[in-house]
Each structure stands twice: as C-alpha cells, then as structure tokens.
TrEMBL record:
InterPro entries: NTF2-like_dom_sf, SnoaL-like, Steroid_delta5-4_isomerase. NCBIfam families: SgcJ/EcaC family oxidoreductase (TIGR02246). Residues 12-135 form the SnoaL-like domain. It comes from Bradyrhizobium australiense. This is SgcJ/EcaC family oxidoreductase.
Length: 137
C-alpha cells in the first residue's frame, strides 16, 4: 500500500475484506452489516436482480450449499475510487471450490465484483453489488 493512500479508500478496502471474510465463514449478520436497507444486487445466478436487504439476505441461502465454509472467497485485485460521500470499487475475486465432486471445480472460479457505496453518518455503506463472470461464446 502506498504511503499516500487515500484514507477513505483504505476504509473501503477494509470493509470489503471484512465482507469477504464473513462470506468465507457463512456469517450472514456480518455479511449484511455494512449494506443499506434499500440496496440492489445483480448476481450470477437468478434472480436477475434483488432489491432490498431482505432479498439480498435470501440469496445467501442459495449460495451456501455450493460454497464450503472456509474456502476461497478472496479478493485478488481491488481498486477503489472514493469521493466525499459516494464511492465505487471494482475487484477480481476467486470463489470456491464448491461442494461439487467435479475435479474441474477444484480451484473454484474467478468472478468480477463491482460495489457502489455511499457514506451515511460518516460510515461507508454498500448500496449496490454486481457479480459477473465473462460470457461464454
């Protein structure tokens, strides 16, 4: 990390690392802790979008059967751009391996993450998440 790192960007990076660790541990309250009640998410599997924290929470029930607790949900690259009260982050992450017995799943898979944040009462809050993988030809 640069000695001239923006303190807001550093705070956001720490928040996202905490979120990723909560996912690895399947700790739903910690996953939700920094999300806005009216957040929106676009995810890899259906539904196409979920609106609101309750819908977001339900998506984890769909994810956890395919992700072994403690396995990778790791940020491999992360860039943050922070303004005074809004920010966004883009990341490449590794997920897996999943619970499948398929040898091709041994290393998991890479996916893209885009997060939109807003500052509320001095704290960064996740207002938008978008997870994606490259489309296959």
């Amino acid at each position: 990390m640069s000695e001239h790192a923006d303190p807001e960007e550093t705070r956001i990076k720490a928040l996202l690392e905490t979120w990723a660790d909560a996912v690895r541990q399947h700790d739903v309250p910690a996953i939700l802790a920094h999300h806005e009640p009216d957040m929106v998410m676009f995810d890899l599997p259906p539904p196409l979008q979920c609106k609101g924290i309750e819908a977001y929470e339900q998506t984890w029930d769909l994810f956890f059967p395919y992700h072994k607790r403690g396995t990778a949900f790791d940020i491999q690259e992360l860039a943050v751009t922070a303004g005074q009260d809004v920010a966004f982050a883009v990341a490449i992450m590794r997920c897996g391996p999943n619970s499948s017995s398929n040898p091709a799943d041994k290393e998991g898979f890479l996916f893209r993450l885009t997060v939109g944040l807003r500052k509320v009462d001095g704290d960064w809050r996740i207002a938008h998440e978008h997870h994606s993988v490259p489309a296959n030809d």
